[in-house]
Amino acid sequence: MPKLRHWIVCVCVLSAAVVLIPPVNANPPSFIQHSALSTQHSPQAPVEQQAVLDRVNAYRQRVGVAPLRLDPALNRAAVGHATYYVLNMADGSMTGIGLHSEQPGKPGFIGATIADRIHGQGYPGTWNEGIALVADPVAAVDTLMETVDHRLPMISPFYTDLGFGGSNNSRTRAAIFTYGGQSPYPQSPEFVAYPADGMTGVAPTYDGDGTSPAFPDATYPVGTAITLQYTGPGTLALTQASLTGPDGTALPIYTRLNYNFITRNVLVLAAQHPLQSGVRYTVRVAGTRPAGPFTQVWSFVTGSGSPFGTAPVPPDAPFTRVWAHTDWPLALGLVSRSWVWGPAPFDTRDEPYHEGSGGVRRVQYYDKTRMEINDSAAPANSPFFVSNGLLVVEMISGQVQVGRTQYESRAPSQEPLVGDARAVNPDAPSYAALRTVASLAGNNGALDHTGQPLVATLDARGVAGNNVRLADYGAQAGHFVPETSHNIADKFWTYLNASGPIYDAGSLRALPLFAWVAVTGYPISEPYWVTADIAGQPTAVLVQLFQRRVLTYTPSFAPAWQVQMGNVGRHYHAWRYGN
Question: Is the pTM of this model over 0.85?
C-alpha cells in the first residue's frame, strides 16, 4: 500500500453527530439537475458505486455494524463534486481542506459547502464527506480505512447511506465519499473496534491523516491506528490501554480520546513505532461509561495488502459500464433526457450463438435493446466488447440470429412499434407490417430529401400514404445516409449527435452520448407518421427503423422526452420468449 500521506488529501472536518443545518437550496447549473429521489435507492448502480458499497459493507460486517445503502441524493452530491473537481483541478483552492469547497461561478458548481451539496440534492439527514486522491475506488476504501478520521464514518453505526463519485483518468484521480444518516438507525454494538477481533492482513503502519494526524507530536510512520468507538449514551473515559506482541511484551503507545468532532467517544491508540508484518497483536482497553466500568480485549494479525484481498469483478460488469455511461445520470436524476438503454436490465441469460464460448453468448435485456458479448475472450476494454443486436432486422425478417451466419426462422413480430400493448393499441403498425417499406436486402431505398418536410404516413397494415397537414409539426429530412439510401429525420439526427453530460467512472463529462452507428445501426426505412395509442390516447408519432433500434418523435411530449428509443428490447424479448 502506498504511503498514506501522499494519498490522503484531507480529513472531513464536520461530524454528522453535530450538524443540524437546515437544507440549503443550492442552485445547480444545467450540468447537474435537481431531483427529489433521496428516499429511493437506485435499482442499478455503476460498477464503481457497487464496488465501493460492497467494500465498505465488508468492513462494516467485520466490525458488526449494519450495512450502508447507496442513496441517489448522496450519489448526486458525490458525482457532482467529483465533476467540479475534474473541471477545476488546476485551481489553487483545490488543495487540502479546500477540496471540500466549491466556488460559485466555477464550472460544475453545485454548492459551496458539503451541507449545501448534500442537502441541496435532497438528502434530509445528517451527513459527512471524505476525499482521497486515489484512482481505484476499492483501493480508496482500503486506503481510507488505514486512517482515523476517514475510517470512522465508514464504520460508524450512525450512518445509514452512502454516495460515491470519482475520477480515474490519466489527469485526475479522486475518490469522493458522501455519508448520510436517517432514522430509524439499526441496532449497533456498544463498542466498535478496528482492526476487528481476529482480522488478518492489517497494515502494520499509520502515516497520519494528511492534514490532521491523530498524534500531532509523533514521528511518522507509527504502528497501525487502532480505534475503539463507544456508541452508547454519555461519555467514554479511559482508564488503561495496552498493546502487546505475541510474547506478551507491552509496546510503547500513543493514545488520544475525543480530540475532534469525528472522534467523539472514540479512543485512538497506536504503537510508537511500526509493527512487524505477519504478527498477532493484542489490544486491551479499560475505562468507564455511564453504565459502569468496561474492559475490551481483542487481537489482530498484521500483513500486506487489504484484509479482503482483491475485489472480484462482477460477471455482468461490462454491461453495467456501458449502461452507466449514458443512463446512470438519468436514473439518478442528474440529467433530463430519454433513456438510451432503460432504467435497469430485466433479463440476463446465455443465448445460443455458434461462435460463442460453449456455443452460447452472454446477453442482457433492457427496455430499449439487448446487450451482448459475442466473444468473451476478447479484450474487455475494447469499445466493441459489448454490442447490441440487430433486433429490429430480426423482428421484421423473422430470422433469429444464432451465429454469424446461422439463423432460426419464425413468423415476424406482431408487436406494435410504439405505444401501448397490442390489445389496446390496434392502430399502430407492427414490425411485421413494415417489411414492405424496410430495407433488409438493399431494397426500398430513397433519394436524398434533405430539408423537405416529413409528411409520409403508415397505417396499421403498413400501407404508406401522405398527409400534408403533418408538415405543421415542423419535422424535416435532416441527413441522408448513402450506406442504406435513407433520410434520417432532423429530430433524430439532432438526437443522434447530442452531447452529454455522460458518466465516466465517477464523474460527469460533456461528451457525445454515443457513436450512433454502433448504437442504432444504419436507418432501414424512411421516417413515417403513425397513430398509436399511448396511455389510452390516440397520438401522432414519427417513427423510423434502424438496424438495431427504433426512434420515435412525439410532439405532444415534454421536450426532453419527445425523441426516444423505442422499446425494442421488450418487444424482442416478448417475440422470442413470450410475454
Answer: no
